[in-house]
Structures are given as C-alpha cells and as structure tokens.
Design brief:
3 strands; 4 helices; elongated
C-alpha cells in the first residue's frame, strides 16, 4: 500500500475536489509530474494516515451528502 495518495488516487477512493480542498489541503508533499513534459503543475500528494483519519471523520461523511 502506498504511503502517499495523489489526487487521482483520492478520487478513486470517492473524494471530490471540494472535499480534498476542505479536508486535506495543503498537500503533504509535491513532486514534479513525470507524465508531462514542459512546465506543469506538480503532483500533489497526501499522507495515507491523514487521508484515512479524514475519511473516518464526521466532516468527511457530512461532505458526502
């Protein structure tokens, strides 16, 4: 299991952009995007422990409504 999740991995887990912004931002790490050439936004990464804590919180469940 990865220790860090990218935004696309979070979306696979049911996260929407608004939930990421409200519950997780700022990201724990950023890295250059290896899938694109030229100037691009870095990949934003979020620590597994923090993601799982947020998913277990009442705020996450409230955001799902």
């Amino acid at each position: 299991m990865p220790d860090l999740f990218s935004k696309s991995q979070l979306k696979e887990r049911g996260w929407a952009d608004s939930k990421i912004k409200n519950l997780l931002d700022p990201p724990d790490e950023t890295r250059p995007n290896p899938h694109r050439n030229g100037p691009t936004r870095p990949i934003q990464l979020y620590r597994r422990r923090r993601v799982e804590r947020a998913e277990a919180s009442p705020d996450f469940r409230h955001e799902c409504r």
